[in-house]
């Protein structure tokens, strides 16, 4: 990733940030009490509701009449618990991934899916490899499962975990995230159990294989801001190993980590719309590319010269690579475009001098809106505002 070099670009962005005194990019700070627009909180804390009326939200669930009808029918029927709709959603996920029946387990959240995956794969007392450039819920899930977190930085010029360092870490289990919808080849991780975190990457492929099928297990988030949702919170676990799926299903029952049938009904509608969702995201990403934006993509960070398989990303995030991320995000927010630093320094799973690449990414990336409900006029407005923020000679 090449940082922006234009001094004029930085001056304009900083000037915009200074003029918007109410802007505040810290995740947990209070707003200014109505004296101006407030910069959005970052990923886990977002509410899908822009701080100022008329602002283009950074992320929104793509819901419509079909989802409403599916949920309302079950509510009218009084079917409020987990039941046949949950089973049907699991069956449809199995078909999507080409897995036998029983190899998908729907759960209350992505964090719950990771926790139960670690628990089912016997993480107790074992070293669990985690990307330093990730949020703290990975660490918390590892702690709850009794594992010992071992952090690995991002490799130079990359956006994913340094796989060479990971191989040499001596860990028993590795949690590898397909960050921002960009697939990563985990085949280099020999002699360790691999859990793929596909929360950003539902539908992404490595060659002809969906991500989530390379390792021993995979987990997904189905929350409101993800590629598809089960109507708020939700998660998914899949594995080729039926005995591991059965363990996760038993834990789900004993810990009451299920979703309701009405949520599952929404998820089934959403899954049926996945091809259209992904196509629209790709269209918007292509428009950003055509505008000349430097965006993180498969060409950066996940090339595998010894493996000729094609990487097919999904556009969960459109992440700008630049030098002064907070100032650019503040400028966009002042222009009524919600933008976030995807993972701030405060949100990093591991901080400090040992992980310089993770720290660098927390300061040089800004995520701009990309979701199916954006219309072309809004996309053009986003492009215009980003161009102003990044303007150079």
What CATH architecture label of the largest domain applies? 3-Layer(aba) Sandwich
Q: How many helical elements?
A: 12
Give the CATH topology of the largest domain: Aspartate Aminotransferase, domain 2
Q: What's the overall geometry?
A: globular
Kindly report the average pLDDT value. Answer: 85
Strand arrangement, major sheet: 1-9-8-5-4-2-3
Radius of gyration: 21 Å
What percent of residues adopt helix (DSSP H or I)?
25-40%
CATH superfamily of the largest domain: Type I PLP-dependent aspartate aminotransferase-like (Major domain)
The first-to-last residue Cα distance is 21 Å
**Content of β-strand:** 5-15%
Number of domains: 2
Poorly predicted regions are 1-48, 300-307
What is the number of E strands?
12
The main pleated sheet reads as: 7 strands, mixed
Note the run of SSEs as H and E: HHHEHEHEHEEEEEEHHHEEHHEH
Q: Regarding CATH, which class of the largest domain? A: Alpha Beta
């Amino acid at each position: 990733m090449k940082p922006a070099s234009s001094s004029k670009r930085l001056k304009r962005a900083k000037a915009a940030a200074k003029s918007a005194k109410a802007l505040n990019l810290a995740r947990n700070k209070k707003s200014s009490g109505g004296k101006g627009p407030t910069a959005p909180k970052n990923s886990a804390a977002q509410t899908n509701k822009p701080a100022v009326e008329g602002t283009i939200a950074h992320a929104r669930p793509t819901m419509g009449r079909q989802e409403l009808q599916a949920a309302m029918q079950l509510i009218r029927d009084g079917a409020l618990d987990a039941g046949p709709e949950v089973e049907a959603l699991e069956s449809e996920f199995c078909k999507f991934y080409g897995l036998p029946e029983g190899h998908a387990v729907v759960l209350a959240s992505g964090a719950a899916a990771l926790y139960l995956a670690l628990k089912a794969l016997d993480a107790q007392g074992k070293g669990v490899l985690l990307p330093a450039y990730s949020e703290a819920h990975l660490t918390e899930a590892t702690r709850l499962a009794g594992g010992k977190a071992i952090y690995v930085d991002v490799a130079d010029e990359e956006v994913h975990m340094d796989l060479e360092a990971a191989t040499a870490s001596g860990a028993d289990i590795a949690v590898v995230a397909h960050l921002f919808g960009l697939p990563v080849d985990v085949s280099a991780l020999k002699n360790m159990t691999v859990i793929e975190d596909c929360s950003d990457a539902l539908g992404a492929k490595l060659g002809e294989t969906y991500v989530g099928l390379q390792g021993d297990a995979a987990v997904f988030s189905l929350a409101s801001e993800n590629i598809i949702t089960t109507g708020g919170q939700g998660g998914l676990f899949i594995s080729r190993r039926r005995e591991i799926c059965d363990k996760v299903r038993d834990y789900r029952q004993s810990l009451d980590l299920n979703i309701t049938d009405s949520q599952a009904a929404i998820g089934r509608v959403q899954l049926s719309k996945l091809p259209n969702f992904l196509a629209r995201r790709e269209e918007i990403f292509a428009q950003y590319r055509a505008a000349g934006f430097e965006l993180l993509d498969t060409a950066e960070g996940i090339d595998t010269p010894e493996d000729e398989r094609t990487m097919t990303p999904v556009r969960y995030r459109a992440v700008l690579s630049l030098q002064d991320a907070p100032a650019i995000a503040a400028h966009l927010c002042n222009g009524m475009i919600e933008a976030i630093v995807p993972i701030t320094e405060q949100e990093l799973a591991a901080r400090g001098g040992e992980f310089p690449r993770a720290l660098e990414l927390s300061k040089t990336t800004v995520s701009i809106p990309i979701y199916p409900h954006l219309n072309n006029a809004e996309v053009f407005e986003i492009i215009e505002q980003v161009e102003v923020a990044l303007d150079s000679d």
